[in-house]
Amino acid sequence: MTAPRTVLVTGGNRGIGFAIAEEFVAQGHRVAVTARSGEGPTGTLTVRADVTDAASVDAAFTEIESELGPVEVLVANAGITKDTLLMRMSEDDFDQVVDTNLGGSFRVVKRASKGMLKARFGRIVLISSVVGLYGSAGQVNYAASKSGLIGMARSITRELGARGITANVIAPGFIETDMTAELPAETQAEYKKSIPAARFASANEVAKVVTWIAGDDAGYISGAVIPVDGGLGMGH
Predict the structure, then answer these.
(1) 83-108: per-residue pLDDT in tens?
(2) What's the CATH number where 115 sits?
(3) 140 and 197 Cβ atoms separated by less than 8 Å
(4) By residue range, what is the domain housing residue 84?
(5) Starting from the edge strand earliest in sequence, which strands make up the sheet with 122-127, in order?
(6) Out of 62, 177, 190, 193, which residue is the most buried by the measure of CB atoms under 10 Å away?
(7) Residue 116: band (very low, low, confident or very high) from pLDDT cuts 50, 70, 90
(8) Cα–Cα distance, 64 to 21 (Å, whole number)
């Protein structure tokens, strides 16, 4: 059994982030979420933050630290997409996605690491995507930002591994969220053909892997990329 920890999930107001926060609450942890709008699940502390702004991130952490204590488990989940083919992708389309998904993870990890170093304990979980390794037409910006998280986690592991801090990457595939629910039935069927498990995952299936990798039983795993994709990205 993992001792209760102070957990922060960025982008915890919907989708996978919401499910992750919910699962940490269910397991008895003190949970905060950052959101630009909306609220996290019942039992969480919702803090306004924009991960593209270091001052905003710092203020959010200060609020969480005073309410719940130093962040011991960080789940960097906040992310955006601006999908379009390479030839049509603007500099802005590229920069915004990379600054939010990769830069945002850097900002929250850097701020969280202060308390983790002091405590000589920390769990950093970066939410990537099967697309980060598998690639996806129309997602040059998103895929680049998500594969960048792997280099980040592995570098953090080499820097901070001796201080009781782990850094791992979760790479979800297709998940049942509002976004996938809006896809036409024939598109969903087409996607499922390429997935060996022949179905999408529930957000809770991702959440349970995140809580496990952040728990005491996984203390000797660091720098790993754990796919939760029904076999879609095998070998990548």
Answers:
(1) 999 999 999 999 999 999 999 999 99
(2) 3.40.50.720
(3) no
(4) 6-228
(5) 45-48, 30-35, 6-10, 73-76, 122-127, 165-172, 225-228
(6) 177
(7) very high
(8) 15
CB neighbourhood size of 97 (10 A) = 25
Q: Where are the beta strands (DSSP E) in the chain?
A: 6-10, 30-35, 45-48, 73-76, 122-127, 165-172, 175-176, 201-202, 225-228
**Is there a domain that residue 30 lies in?**
yes
Residue 179 in domain: yes
Amino acid 1: pLDDT: 61
Catalytic residues: 142
pLDDT tens-digit readout, 175-189: 998 778 888 899 889
Domain-located, residue 1: no
Backbone angles phi, psi at 92, to 5 degrees: -65, -40
Write out the H or E segment, with its range, that includes residue 67.
helix 54-68
How many domains does one find in the chain? 1
Do 203 and 175 touch, CB atoms closer than 8 A?
A: yes
Q: Could you report the per-residue pLDDT of 8-60, keeping only the tens digit for each?
A: 999 999 999 999 999 999 999 999 999 999 999 999 999 999 999 999 999 99
